Amino acid sequence: MDCIFCKIANGEIPSATLYEDGDFRVILDLGPATKGHALILPKKHYANLHEIPEDMAAKAMVLAKKMAGAMTEALACDGLNVVQNNGEAAGQTVFHFHMHLIPRYKEDHAGITWVPGTLTDDDKTEIVEKITRELAK
Ligand code: AMP
Ligand code: ZN
User: Fold this and answer.
1) Which atom of ligand 1 is nearest to the CA of 98?
2) Mean pLDDT along residues 83-106
3) What is the CB < 6 Å shell around ligand 1?
């Protein structure tokens, strides 16, 4: 399989590495939304959140917390977004699970936002019913 993040995570392609352990490598994104934008990459290939095993997903979130603390101190950012895209429709462009750590600075205009819609009563009933039924399976 020809996956660029597999090669980066396992050191076959050099990267600006912020952190590495047996399971993960954290690198600087080459097309940063803001200064310090980083990516958490598991060394094993999972396409997305649906494929990553629960223990690795848990480890990834613990690492996100560790990195967020260090990045906030080191970069003196004012906030930080954790973003994780699944599927083309959600903006995923590299199909190897990764988490974005995006430092935020006042007035950075990074635009990681959406226009709030409206939760109608019909939507609320339908969505709650569908998802709770799915969870109960
Ligand atoms: P996503 O759209 O969630 O799949 O995010 C993919 C991210 O990977 C984008 O932010 C890209 O800028 C970044 N990216 C793609 N190729 C590389 C690379 N070779 N090194 C570092 N970051 C990359
Ligand atoms: Zn991969």
Assistant:
1) 3
2) 98
3) 4, 15, 27, 29-31, 39, 85, 91-94
